[in-house]
Every structure is written in structure tokens, then in C-alpha cells.
Amino acid sequence: MFDAYIICGTPRTGSTLLCDLLTSTKRTGVPHSFYRRQDMPEWSEEWGLPGRGAMSELNFDVAYLNAAIKAGKGGTGIFGLRLMRENLDELSAIFDRIHPGLPSDKARFEKAFGRVLYMHLSREDKLAQAVSLVKAEQTGLWHIAPDGTEIERVGLPAESRYDFERIRDEVSELQAYDTAWNVWFAQQGIAPLRIGYERLAADPAATLISICEALGAPPPDADDIRPGVAKLSDETSLDWMRRYRLDAAI
């Protein structure tokens, strides 16, 4: 039985869908990006923590960690965390302040959370992933529900436009982040549970059940699993991918 899990991902790999599925079981925590730098002030306010200026850095780090663990458990026995590769080094530095002298990131994380299951959530089709990311950044729309209603929008609605260079740069960065995760797993001696976006999107129920089994948590009945997030891919996405492949071949 694990005490916690960390979803090690990159943007547009289905992490919001996966977090929603895990939360829906009411047995496997309430995972969020608690250590995404941009979101930490909002979490601090929601949890009623004193401002950073009201206490020492170390005391704030400890208070924030305790509040994050409580929120990430959501009344269950398992803590869930979504972590993007770009936030890994900063989180390691925070835990090094709280638990100094430990020999590795893995040791620091397990000192903080207990026995951790590491999940590597990745997407095989990096071009589709990059197109999805660029579209979301341009339009401000990041997630929709199965009925088409908006779940998450960042900024005012805007038009999307094909941008070869931006997509190319995102493909390169996403590949680098995936490689960096694999290097880190090897350095830390971690054999993660591999979760592919393609399987998650095609069969979310089977993916969730396999994760529950790996965690040692009772899995829900497959018929009771209702994904709360839908794909945003559309004809525009497919058109951009076709255009990109043509442009890349020139």
C-alpha cells in the first residue's frame, strides 16, 4: 500500500483527466499541481496560511507542505500530487530546506510523503501534444467537459492561428522534458508506472483501474467511471498537423 503518488507529466498529456478520475474514486486522494509556482499564492490563500512575510521561509515551507498533504488526501488515506518537470528542481529545493542532508530527491519526497508511487504520464505523439498546447495558449481554453461546457479558461477568448516555428519549438521542449524525466528516474533508481496518454484517452476506465490496483486501493466498478474531461482536438488540430508535416519536409 502506498501513502502517496506523484503524477510526473508534461503539459497536454491528459493529466487533468487523470486527476479528475482519481478524485472521483473517493479513495485515491485529490491530486493537484500544489507546487506549480504560479498557483502557490492562490493555494496559500485558500488554505488560510499566513503570508510569506509573516514567518520564516522554512516555517512557511512546512506549513504549506502540511496543508498540501491534507488537501491532496481529501479525506482519503492517499496523497496525490501532479508535478510537471519544470517544477521538479524547485520542489526538491523546498524539501531540502525542510529535510536537509538527505542524499536524493527520492529520499526527500519519501520523507515528506511516505511510500510514493511514481507515475510517468507521457504522450507518444509529440506533434499532437505540441499542437494541443499551442492552441490552448492561443485561445485561452484549456479544458472542456464531455457536454462541451468550459472547465478551464485562462484569459479572454482569442482566435488560434497556425505557427510552424512555435509548434516546432514546443515539440522540441516537450521531447526534452520527457527525456529529463527519464534521466531523473534513472538517477533516482525509480521504476515508474508508465501511463500513456493514448491509452488513457481511449480507455480511461481501464487505466484508472490499473492505477488503483498498483496503489493497492480498491478499484471502482468500470461502469461507474465517468470521465469529466473531453478531448479538445478537432479538425483545426488535424489541419495544423498536416501543415506542419508538409512545412517540416521542405
Keywords:
single chain; 250 residues; alpha/beta
The CATH topology turns out to be Rossmann fold
Number of beta strands = 6
Average pLDDT for all residues: 93
CATH architecture descriptor name: 3-Layer(aba) Sandwich
Strand order of the largest sheet: 2-1-3-6
Rg = 19 Å
Query: Structural class, judged by helices and strands?
Result: alpha/beta
Specify the number of helices. Answer: 10
Strand-residue proportion: 5-15%
Assign a percent range to the helix content: 40-55%
Helix and strand sequence:
EHHHEHHEHEEHEHHH
- Poorly predicted runs are none
CATH homology superfamily name: P-loop containing nucleotide triphosphate hydrolases
The span between the termini is 53 Å
Number of domains: 1
Biggest sheet descriptor = 4 strands, parallel
Shape verdict: globular
Describe this protein's structure.
With 250 residues, the chain is α/β, with parallel strands linked by helices. It has one domain: 3-Layer(aba) Sandwich (Rossmann fold), CATH 3.40.50.300. The chain has a 4-stranded parallel beta sheet. A two-stranded antiparallel sheet has the order 4-5. The longest helix is centred in the last third of the chain and has 25 residues. The mean pLDDT is 93.
